Amino acid sequence: MIKKTLIYLATFALMPISSHAQFGNMTEAQMQQMMQQGLKMQKCFGQIDSSAMERLSERGQSIDAEITALCRAGNRDQAQSKAMAFALEMANDPAIQAMKKCGEGMADMLPKIVTESEDYGNSETSSRHVCDNR
């Protein structure tokens, strides 16, 4: 969710001003409020330990390589288990929790491009396997 939020913010910031007014039927005041909240979020992210973020990035790349290798070797169950364990590890990581907290203020302000139910709750995505896109 945080990654999607950051991608959305980057996309929003790069759009021409004229398209901001059309996007999601936002008023000028709503756009200003969202930009203010974005600046607060940026400041908050700046306070997160960069070495922890680097560690998480390296860990993620390592796990991704392991999962890809398991998938290619046909070890789908083992790959899925590793992916689920890593997701739990990330959910409990203090840096990830800090990132989530930084993004909380924006969540209510952003238009719902993809709802959480579309991401996690429907049968199509909940039945996907980590190896299906590798």
What do these coordinates show?
It is built from eight helices and no strands. It is an all-alpha fold and 134 residues long. It has a domain at 56-103. Helix 3 (28-46) runs antiparallel to helix 6 and helix 4 (50-72) packs antiparallel against helix 5 (76-92). Mean pLDDT is 77; it is low at 16-22 and 112-123.
Give the biggest sheet. none
- The counted number of beta strands is 0
The end-to-end span amounts to 21 Å
Q: Assembly type of the shown chains?
A: single chain
Q: What's the Cα radius of gyration?
A: 18 Å
Question: Uncertain runs with pLDDT below 50, 5 residues or more?
Answer: 16-22, 112-123
User: How would you state the average pLDDT, rounded?
Assistant: 77
What characteristic shape results from the CA principal axes?
elongated
